[in-house]
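re: that chain from earlier
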Amino acid sequence: MKFNTYLFLLFGFVLSCTNVQAQEVDKSYLDTDLSMEDRVDLLVDQMTLKEKIAQLTDESKAVPRLDIPEYGWWNEALHGVAYSGRATVFPQPIGLASSWNKDLIYDIAVAVSDEARAKHHNFVRNGKRNNFQGLTFWAPNINIFRDPRWGRGIETYGEDPFLTGRLGVAYVKGLQGEDEKYLKLVATPKHYAVHSGPEPERHRFNATCSDKDLYETYLPHFKEAIQEGGAYSIMSAYNRFNGESCSGHKRLLTEILRDEWGFDGYVVSDCNAIRDIFLHHKIVDSKEEAAVVGITSGCDLNCGDYYKTLNSAHKQGLISEEEIDIAVKRVLLARFKLGMFDADEIVPYAQIPMSVVNSEENQKLAIKSACESMVLLKNEKNLLPLSEDIKTIGVMGPNANDLEVLLGNYNGLPFEASTPLEGIKKYAPKGCNVLYSLGADWAEGVNVVETLPKGLLFTKENGILKEGLWGEYFSNTKLEGKPAAKHFDKHLAFDWRDGAPLANFPDDNFSIRWQGILKVKESGEYRLGSEAHHEFRIFIDDSLHVKHAEFYHQNTKKVASVKLEAGKEYNIRIEFVAKTGDANFRLVWVPNNRKLVENALEVAEKSDVVVMCMGLSPRLEGEEIRGLKIDGFYGGDRTDIVLPENQQELIKAVAKTGKPIVLVLLNGSALAINWSDKNIPAILEAWYPGQAAGDAIGKTLFGENNPSGRLPVTFYKSVNDLPDFSDYSMKNRTYRYFEGEALYPFGYGLSYSNFKYSNLKIAKKSKLGDSVTLEVDIRNTSELEGEEVVQVYISNKIKDLKIDLPITSLKSFSKLKINSRETKTVTFELKPEYFSYVDKLGKTVLSEGDFEVFVGGVLPGYKSATTEGLSAKIHIEK
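^ sequence. v structure.
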């Protein structure tokens, strides 16, 4: 090509840019008297194709000439504002679901949205509009926890569509607010749809199920979140469903979501799910085609960068600008509804002050929610609450004094948090001595790590060792150029979070290099590494020891073995890079020669009662944990549902001492604790209880909290009782279809009170299409005030339908506080659709015939030591 041709093209490009800039901008889209839809139309009509496409990724670019600021769409708030500095941290959702308390879930969502709004406006005041600083939140996770092996089930409300729907609607409403014009936040139920593992295969996995299972199990709660909750966004899943990517699935995203349910918001892909359409699912042959499949199927916003190829796709004739406009208008309308183009003075939520963050009211709510999430599984001879006469309590286990395990995943960092050990010390009887021993790691090869203690890191100056390391602090993310500052750090344990490492230093884009000497006092093999959200590298004698190469949305702890000689000086270099806010860094290790079991047995022998805090950890179960492959665990999922062998061995060893044991489980999924159920007198399921873990556990063990939690999942006896993990058919899954005997059934939980049911009133017959009224009395027969979760189940007894019917299904519930010796009457209205079935085509059919209605505090067919239930038959006729 000749030089003149180059010059002509350059001139044309400059001219086109000049024309865009020179074009008079019509600012009438800022007129708040117009409808928001009209305002969006006026704005989009003035945008170039390039400017439009720039709005369709999670890091949307600014358009200064049109006063469109940049915006980061990615925010998380499963149980508190996450990755945005300090925040109130409530229990993990699986624990919140155990409360069976819709009003509590709503109150938590209101508190979360208050904190989110305050943080957002504070960020904006400081010129920040990045991911984790906005108002569009990717929560709640309402996938069905169909199999206890799924690692991300900890983020859900359990295995039942009805319970999930009721709690999901409450959370959505609490997040989005009740203003008629403006949204407080945008809630984004996820991951739509038919998504629950396996984690290591999620980018290429094809989930298949019948239309009956789709409409009966995998969709009802999403429909409720959209139609009743009013969720303005929804997130598509990674996997394929019946052969098509969930993020490019026209039936899911258009025909069902918009045409059947009337959804008028926007769809966002899970991060890099559009990339998977091309790279892993191999549905199409190019990036451009993947982007086109996504956007034309109804996925409006791409978390990732594949929608950046839409310009190329448009040039190739694969998509029209009008098709792109549909998505652009949907995402911009959300920003208008959030008030982002209006003055703060007229947006009702823009004045929420930062003082709401971890306010006294929110702290109390964290304690209340943690207390209500406690599920008492066993209490032989009323060992709990513990006697005030106890003189010495032994506390042990990997979850007894670890902060990470309290917070679960997708969490913020609390201002203060109490561990089970701290809670037991706080609520133990006056004068009671509390002893502690670690006792066990989480699993073989997954250690409970400690912050590297003082006295091991040095700098040599003039031949003399000085404790601590010099850190070179760079105001860039590449450790380049002259350090902006040097600081002498004696202890490498930092939680900067909302702040910056140094005064007048960036809080979200910096890097640090520490150098010096590592010197241990005892020879042996240690495990040394770091904990951080961000990148880090550790070098020992100039050899790379361990690294983490990217920002990750969970705290990453990486350690590696190294043999060290006592007194020998090892050169150590640590490099840390923070590319977003919410930065933290901690140098951690596993000390040499820990005598875990021996020390635990010494504590047990000295104790009157032993509290064993066992279970799992977000390091074992969670989202796509890369590199994890040990006995019982793979890539975030579980391959078995028993406690890790080393923990079982510790429980059995302590049991041999003959001391009374209270087993406190902290975990996010069902555990087959068959031996403990037979041999340990008291078992408390505490889940991942959030910042108030110690308070909730301490209050429960010593009687200040009467446990009222009920299981939102089935605790099975063995993984062998379950179908293949990758089988999405509901046959023999969850309480609705499980044909075996559960260890602890769905809806199960004991109390320190006792409840008796009587005077069940329900019509023996009812007409098809009519509601049915149920009334029952519940009496607290004990001396202690308590809360009962009244559950209503309906079983379809119609024969010859030639389809698999659920054994029973939850259709209503209510949580009641009942005083000692008090009787309360509760009334339920059973809707006509509760007396129905879902046919092979996925259609809900109101049916004539016989049904059995059960009301009680336990699943039909199971017994409880502290509650019961009543049943009645009803015939539905024309």
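The chain has 21 helices and 41 strands.
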